[in-house]
Design goal:
Shape: globular
Radius of gyration: 19 Å
Number of helices: 10
Number of domains: 2
CATH architecture of the largest domain: Alpha-Beta Complex
CATH superfamily of the largest domain: Spore Coat Polysaccharide Biosynthesis Protein SpsA, Chain A
Structural class: alpha/beta
Number of strands: 13
CATH topology of the largest domain: Spore Coat Polysaccharide Biosynthesis Protein SpsA, Chain A
Distance between the termini: 38 Å
CATH class of the largest domain: Alpha Beta
Length: 329
């Protein structure tokens, strides 16, 4: 099985200096690429000078995560792509369990390893943790992380299971499936495009897996901090995009309830003295309205839509019922 590790970079020389050595040390069986998203620092020169064994792909523009990978992977030949953030530290033998699952379970199209926090290595990391799920109204959550509550890794998620979505921080995908899905939806730019991508894969009958016997450490927020209003904007907007495109239920009911819940989130931000985040949600909704006709056309193009949720409302469970861990749901 030919694996290509593709690291998307944008002005990330410091991250490459810190994390690329572990990738090269522990990924001998894979070919490593860095896809540069039109950086304005000297990332590319740094790579040419210090890591000639790394293949550099230079994108003409910074199209974010979605377009960045869509453009870069046109130049990569492999059976499996590993889309790896530049702020990830990998571990010894991390690729072996992934390869075994792909080989032994042919319907598996996408895999995510265990993602721990690089700054607190005994805790899960926000972006993906131990595999992702989604509730009836499109809110994502993970084993090991619900909203901002992060669990300590005690070996409770060392299994291999089906999940609904895999984190874009480290996403393995068969190249044939990536091609079948026409890659990521570039209108997302960044954040939650991997959920839309996994959802579309599941709608075609493919499996998405979490493999807890493979471990990586992710910094998180290295490109866009969790405190950034732009991240709030992208997450709220793209979550609505994903719901409309892929949900199997009465979409107008789901969106109506979702907009009300988003409004409550905006009020919560005001009480927390974060008006820029409230404004980000308002902007996200207007962007969603402007894009709605396109989303409905994309929705019609999908002939099958799977049942997508195992939990009705993660918002209710977390904020009202005070259930803070996955196992308490």
């Amino acid at each position: 099985m030919k694996i290509a590790i593709v690291i998307l970079n944008w002005n990330g020389k410091a991250l490459l200096q810190q994390f690329l050595p572990s990738v090269l040390l522990f990924s001998k069986e894979a070919k490593v690429y860095v896809a540069d998203n039109a950086s304005t620092d000297n990332s590319v020169e740094f790579l040419k000078d210090h890591y000639p064994q790394v293949t550099i792909i230079q994108n003409n523009t910074n199209g974010g995560y979605a377009k960045g990978y869509n453009d870069a992977l046109k130049h990569v030949e492999a059976d499996v792509y590993c889309l790896l953030n530049s702020d990830v530290e990998v571990t010894e033998n991390w690729l072996l369990p992934i390869k075994e699952v792909f080989i032994n379970e042919p319907n598996t199209a996408i895999i995510q390893p265990k993602i721990l926090d690089q700054k607190q290595k005994d805790y899960f990391e926000y972006a993906g943790a131990a595999g992702g799920f989604i509730d009836k109204f499109g809110y994502p959550y993970c084993r090991g992380r619900i909203f901002n509550t992060i669990e300590k890794d005690k070996g409770q998620y060392n299994d291999i299971i089906d999940v609904f979505w895999a984190s874009g921080a480290c996403l393995f995908v068969k190249s044939t499936v990536f091609s079948t899905l026409n890659g990521f939806d570039e209108s997302f730019f960044a954040h939650m495009e991997e959920i839309d991508f996994c959802w579309r894969a599941k709608n075609l009958g493919y499996d998405v897996k979490y493999v807890g016997s493979s471990t990586i450490y992710h910094v998180g927020g290295a490109t866009l901090s969790n405190t950034s209003p732009k991240k709030t904007y992208l997450n709220f907007r793209n979550s609505l995009y994903t719901l409309v495109k892929n949900a199997s239920n009465n979409i107008f009911y789901l969106v109506f309830i979702r907009l009300l819940l988003d409004g409550l989130a905006g009020i919560k931000f005001l009480f927390e003295f974060k008006p820029k985040h409230t404004l980000a949600i308002i902007k996200a909704h207007f962007s969603f309205y402007n894009h709605l006709s396109i989303l409905l056309k994309q929705r019609k193009s999908q002939s099958k839509k799977v049942h997508f949720y195992t939990h009705k409302s993660i918002v209710w469970s977390y904020f009202i019922s005070k259930k803070k861990s996955f196992k308490s749901l």
